[in-house]
Amino acid sequence: MGNSKTQSIRSMTGFGSAEYAALGWHFAIDIRSVNGRFLDFSLRCPDEIRQLEPWLREQIASLMQRGKVEMRINLRRQAAASDVIQLNESVLAQVLALVSDIRTKTTELTAFSPLELLRFPGITVDANQVEQAMLQESIKKLAAEAIENLDSAREAEGARLASFLKERVAAIRKLCRELEQQLPNWSTALEMRLKERLSSIGFGNEQRTGPQAIEPASEPAGPLGRATNKTSTSDDGGPGLPHQSLELQQRIAQELGLFAMKSDVAEELSRLRAHTEAVDQIIDKGGPCGKRLDFMMQELQREANTLGAKSQMLEQSMVSVELKVLIEQMREQIQNLE
């Protein structure tokens, strides 16, 4: 697997296969991978090639860090089994050459039978051993091809998932921009709504109603000939009603300030933008990034929840819901990334 692919995002889900026919055998290898927290490799194959499992496991480990991988190897003999004992042509040629050389140097060499020649070490070989070695070599080549096909499928799926995530990130940014544009209008509407509620319960009205509005009778004129009215002045000597109205206005201003602080979402929007930029950077960097992206989804979800908790307008609540839907869609797909 080339280094040029090391920076690509890969899915943990993929499939690769390869087939080959040689030496009277038909080979077929299938590899499937799905998402998993750790690397889990399992092999199903005939006992003749079970000893290749450590080598195959090493090849998969060099390709993947996480995921559940299942490999199946099927063998089928196409031709009749060869003889158990076969003549080693190369060793026979060497022996005959030695015999010919000896004949040129001495005349005392007696004739020998083919049976004596067969007793020469290495002149015959076990056909099963030769076939086993050739089988293993063929399986290694075929497995490398199937693994390469699996890697290509994972890379293609990873590219599709990266595009999907980029689209959702762009949608989140768009929602944040639209929300920022509407915030001034919503702030004004919220202020008007609060003033109306306060007014409806009597706050801010300078003219009182009810028994308190009835002025008591004036007392007789005092020594200076002026009538006095105890309700016309406050404790500090000023007019009572204007003083009361000023206190109420200050209270309204205070409540509006607290209300604005509680409903201000500028900080949440700023963090949402920062998190989306981080997601883009992780995707662009490539490589195994599933766990990092999953962490970023938690951060995005936290800000979306806070945004919803601060919502005072229906439209703002709907934006929070849409953000949560987009984040959940991303989270589901990120589970498939390595």
Q: How would you describe this structure to a colleague?
A:
- The protein is of the alpha+beta class and 338 residues long.
- It has 3 domains: 3-81 and 127-154, Ribosomal Protein S5, domain 2; 89-122, no CATH class; 159-200 and 241-334, no CATH class.
- The protein has helices at residues 53-63, 89-105, 114-118, 127-200, 240-263, 266-285, 290-309, 314-334; strands spanning 14-22, 25-34, 39-44, 67-77, 85-87, 124-126.
- Helix 1 (53-63) links the parallel strand 3 and strand 4 (67-77).
List the helices and strands and how they pair.
Blueprint: E1 14-22, E2 25-34, E3 39-44, H1 53-63, E4 67-77, E5 85-87, H2 89-105, H3 114-118, E6 124-126, H4 127-200, H5 240-263, H6 266-285, H7 290-309, H8 314-334
Parallel strand pairs: 3-4
Antiparallel strand pairs: 1-2, 2-4, 5-6
Helix pairs in contact: 1-4, 4-6, 4-8, 6-7, 7-8
